[in-house]
Amino acid sequence: MTTNLILQGLSTQRSDIDRIAELAGGSRIVALTENVYRVEDVRFSEALKAGIDGECFNARLDYAFTPAGRRLDDFGLVAMDMDSTLITIECIDEIADMQGLKPQVAEITEAAMRGEIEFRESLTRRVALLKGLEASALQRVYDERLKLSPGAERMLEAIKAAGLKTLLVSGGFTFFTDRMKTRLGLDYTHSNELEVSDGKLTGRVTGGIVDAEEKMRTVERVCADIGISPRKAIIMGDGANDLKMMGISGMSVAFRAKPIVRAQADVALNFVGLDGILSLFE
């Protein structure tokens, strides 16, 4: 199968594109837009990928090796993590900030995303620190701090136009995923529910915890529901708890992700927005 190399950045220097294309040994360079280029007929190898990775990172370019002729509608589902993927914040860290506990909670969050703490344990510890907080703080986080990641709306518009379904599956909370579903017109969401009593957080979640295994099972359930194989799913995430669902996908995308995730994903977007995945299809 013929392989192409896609190079893209927020801004690009043609000299960087030419240098990397020469290293890749492709037959020609096609400018797709001002900042997106396709190097055609590349012979992929792990050694080549390692060399391209270093060159692109230094030039602040994202790259992907893609099969020639691959189309977005070859897939049937895009599944996304929420915190630090679809949106720019970690909601639980911002909730904790309302308690003056952001540094303590953020430290646990970071360790969990790097894979140093099992996610279930990390969530239990972090949520416990929120005990006694007024539940109204959740709305404040949504109103004042939650922002979509760059390119999110353009990506979703194209996904829907191509007929794909959308799933937001998160180790975060239903308060936010429910609002994202309505705001963005998503097809499916699944996340954790914070327990509230007398208008305050109890420091617990109700029901099962959406950890790495549950994220993977959710993707499998949704794929079964729409009648496709998980290999027809594009899965996007940034943390270690996304790796299991990414592992069953047909295309895994690490978005501004932790090193452990970038190393295992098919595609890593470090510089461009979420809509950078659209450049990977013909």
TrEMBL record:
Q: What Gene Ontology molecular-function terms does this entry list?
A: hydrolase activity
Give cofactor(s), names only.
Mg(2+)
Top-rank taxon:
Bacteria
Task: Supply the SUPFAM superfamilies for this chain.
Answer: HAD-like (SSF56784)
So, what pathway does this thing act in? Amino-acid biosynthesis; L-serine biosynthesis; L-serine from 3-phospho-D-glycerate: step 3/3
Which EC class heads this enzyme's classification?
hydrolase
**Pfam families noted in UniProt:** DUF4072 (PF13284), HAD (PF12710)
Q: Which reaction does it catalyse?
A: O-phospho-D-serine + H2O = D-serine + phosphate; O-phospho-L-serine + H2O = L-serine + phosphate
Which residues does the UniProt record annotate as the domain DUF4072? 5-50
Q: Which UniProt keywords apply?
A: Amino-acid biosynthesis, Hydrolase, Magnesium, Metal-binding, Serine biosynthesis
EC number(s) per entry: 3.1.3.3
Which NCBIfam families does this chain map to? HAD-SF-IB (TIGR01488), serB (TIGR00338)
Family label: Belongs to the HAD-like hydrolase superfamily. SerB family.
- The protein's name in its UniProt record: Phosphoserine phosphatase
Q: Which organism is it from?
A: Noviherbaspirillum album
Highest classification ranks of the organism: Bacteria, Pseudomonadati, Pseudomonadota, Betaproteobacteria, Burkholderiales
Which gene codes for it? serB
